[in-house]
């Protein structure tokens, strides 16, 4: 591993593990939000909202 | 060039309120703990009852997403409360292990997390249901985080009396989601939770008076004294027991609810009398904690009865009404 810049230290394994878990949680939350907006669109506008001429 | 993504400024382990943490950046469960999950469950439950007593119709997907947003909004207000009250939480043993005072999450992170969830939950609820429900959720969040946490809690022994309005609003939001308006049913449920809150919390405050005094919070037992608090617990319970039967009188509580409300109300009265009578030693503590625990059961049973009657079709009218 490269040496960190002066005044910085490398993350510990535990810190890296926690950051990875936070990243996964954020990704899941974003995915859930996309799903929510998709379901809301279908529920409020009906499935025909996708059936329109280009 | 050396990457900064896997490094941390030396000394960035900013001190929390407890000994400086060895790890910067909380674990996922720490962020979840900021949302006060147990309160979220109660909010989902009471909001759901507010929805089913409304007799309206809502698309199940819209209803489920709305419930989720009400819960997230409540969690966000809990997160903002923990951000603001971290100094108090650090002093009290009951709350010292919360993520911020324990140093697992930095205050700024909690503030950003709470604000993001607040804005997101209100906007999505507005888009999913209607803007009355979203406005009520926004009001609830502001009322709990600003009016209660930042002002009332440290200013007056009436803190949890007035602040209880925030915890009482979820059924009103639930009804707004379904019907687009606020009706008598959810207002009665609001009143029941509102009047239930003081005896519930003061029972705990009687036992934890020393802790609250250490943290400088003017809870009723610390300001007016335990005797006055016990008397007020009885007064509020005297108001709560008949109020708990109001849904029967108004026709949306049936036979099951009437029995639960009557027996539960009598139980609450019996516990409040025990609290009033036992003023010293182990008996005092036991009766106060008994009241605290039973009050949770009482509210849970009242709302469960409504859910069973209105949601599962078990409603049988009470003949004498």
TrEMBL record, chain A:
The chain crosses the membrane at residues 24-43. Keywords: Membrane, Transmembrane, Transmembrane helix. This is Carbon monoxide dehydrogenase.
Automatic annotation (TrEMBL), chain B:
The chain crosses the membrane at residues 39-58, 64-84, 105-125, 131-148, 160-182, 188-207, 233-250, 256-276, 288-308. GO terms for molecular function: protoheme IX farnesyltransferase activity. It is a multi-pass membrane protein. Keywords: Cell membrane, Heme biosynthesis, Membrane, Transferase, Transmembrane, Transmembrane helix. Pathway: Porphyrin-containing compound metabolism; heme O biosynthesis; heme O from protoheme: step 1/1. Its EC number is 2.5.1.141. Its main location: membrane. It comes from the Bacteria. One of its GO terms (biological process) is heme O biosynthetic process. It is found in: Cell membrane. It catalyses: heme b + (2E,6E)-farnesyl diphosphate + H2O = Fe(II)-heme o + diphosphate. The keyword Transmembrane helix applies. It is an enzyme of class 2 (transferase). Pfam families: UbiA (PF01040). NCBIfam families: cyoE_ctaB, PRK04375.1-2. Converts heme B (protoheme IX) to heme O by substitution of the vinyl group on carbon 2 of heme B porphyrin ring with a hydroxyethyl farnesyl side group. This is Protoheme IX farnesyltransferase. It comes from Methylobacterium oxalidis. The lineage of its organism: Bacteria, Pseudomonadati, Pseudomonadota, Alphaproteobacteria, Hyphomicrobiales.
